[in-house]
Design brief:
By secondary structure, this protein is of the alpha+beta class. It has two domains: 4-99, Pseudouridine synthase I, catalytic domain, N-terminal subdomain (Alpha-Beta Plaits), CATH 3.30.70; 105-213, 2-Layer Sandwich (Alpha-Beta Plaits). 19% of the residues lie in helices and 33% in strands. It contains four helices and ten strands. The chain has helices at 19-32, 79-84, 123-134, 186-196, and strands at 4-10, 49-51, 60-68, 91-98, 108-116, 140-144, 150-154, 159-167, 170-178, 204-213. Strands 1, 2, 3, 4, 5, 8, 9 and 10 form an eight-stranded mixed beta sheet that branches. Strands 6-7 form a two-stranded antiparallel ribbon. Strand 6 and strand 7 form a beta hairpin. The mean pLDDT is 93.
Length: 221
Amino acid sequence: MARHRLRFQKEGRAIYLSHLDLMHTMQRAFVRANIKIRHTEGFNPHPYISVALPLSVGVESKAELLDFELADDTPLDSLPMLLTAKMPQGIIVQEAYEAQSKVKDISWLRLTAALEYDTQEDAADVAAKLTALFAQKEIKVKKRTKKKEEAEIDIAPLIRELTFTPAPRKITVEALVAAQNPPLSPSLLLAAIEQHTAEFTPDFAAFTRLELYDKNMRIFR
């Protein structure tokens, strides 16, 4: 059977859905829209669906992908309207199409962020200091592994583009970073700031995933 793919966005209150909650939400939306998808066989069948590159809770996205397989003849171009109508507020299905590539081929992702400061910092100075930090050839960051052990990784090779633009009481970030194997998560960017320039750690940070690319910088489909 052909693999199909949804592209959807996750914003507003929906950014606080965990990956497991999102999977349950997507499954229920297919059922409520009366769209049949293929399931595993056996006593307790499960739908063949998967979300690529799960987001951290609290991160907005304009480029989420879900793979599935239809088990009926519902036209793909009708799925965005049918599914969005059954989604909670903040999840909007943009496209449904036949998958052209495998998820393992995603190499880069583009994101933006707003680093906000409660105090009146000199935004231009903060942007300059952060630019200097991330321009280094080596940026070691300590992180906790899944086994709760502490490890140190160099995130510099995971950054392809990174800019900091000053604004009143905040810094706008534009970045192109590794998507997987390993990924550069927003938490690692914040950890680098906290561990190397603690005085410029933001009081609040909001991240948004904008786009996904393959190794040749083509938009992933």
